[in-house]
Amino acid sequence: MELIRGLHNLKKQPGCILTIGNFDGVHLGHQEILKKLVSKSKKMGLPSLVVSFSVTPETFFGRPKARLSSFRDKHLFLESMGVDKHLLIRFNKGFSELSASSFINQILVGKIGVKYCFIGDDFRFGKGRLGDFSMLKAASHENNYTIEKLNSVLLDGLRVSSSAVRNFLTDGNFTGAEKFLGRPFSISGKVAHGDKLGRTIGFPTANISIHRKLSPILGVYSVLVKLKSQTYNGVCNVGKRPTLGGKKTLLEVFIFDFNEEIYGEYVTVIFKQKCREEKKFESFDELKTQIKKDVEKSRLFFQNNIS
What we know:
The protein has 307 residues and is α/β, with parallel strands linked by helices. It has helices spanning 28-44, 57-60, 71-80, 93-96, 100-112, 133-143, 162-170, 174-181, 284-304, and strands spanning 2-5, 16-20, 48-55, 85-90, 114-120, 146-150, 154-155, 158-159, 186-192, 206-208, 219-227, 230-239, 250-255, 266-276. Helix content is 32%, strand content 28%.
């Protein structure tokens, strides 16, 4: 799949099958849109193109949300769905002030060359979010493209959305999150060097940079760790480590029965159970005692939930 960073890097094309959105988490609702996108692309013999944003509109307007997936993971998932091109647009002041009609004429028609477009039922665009399906439909006839609105996917009477997945994660409901995502919730990243305090108390951790100011999960969790072709059990902490005076949100995972140097390796941490909230302990010894309890709780969880 071709990654195009910015409209200025988009080469002239005869047309494309398009969809637009943040696609955070690439949940089941997103997947339905992507399936139709790829299918229509093959039928019409035109490339499928997904437009997403490097800075989301919510973040630009000061209403950031915790990201469910890193850009890398989102891009790889789009690729696995069979998408041909991924256009990444930086949402900035100029883009935010583009009128809805200018967005259609200058961007969708003039620059992207849309021939068929799929949008979700809540899609809005243009300055003041004044653009909607009816405006796209009205402009489609004179600009020779087709627009199709797709209804939200419902599960158990609930609309599948990134916000719903975040709510599940906040509640520690990983079964609900997995149902809406179509796969277990996970965080991937490279193992980086940390302060190595864990090994001084018998719990050496792999430190994974998550590159997020806001995390959809915070606390201590029982996890699976996928490394290369192997899967291990473990316990991880996502937070700022208040006992140690931390300021930055980190993911640290203690892998059970494991003693290898894995710095620089790419790992995936799959969340299975929330053990507790993160808290500040009065001493390092109290923290050590609690970690032992967390490990025991997680070992018991995996003993009772062998798949």
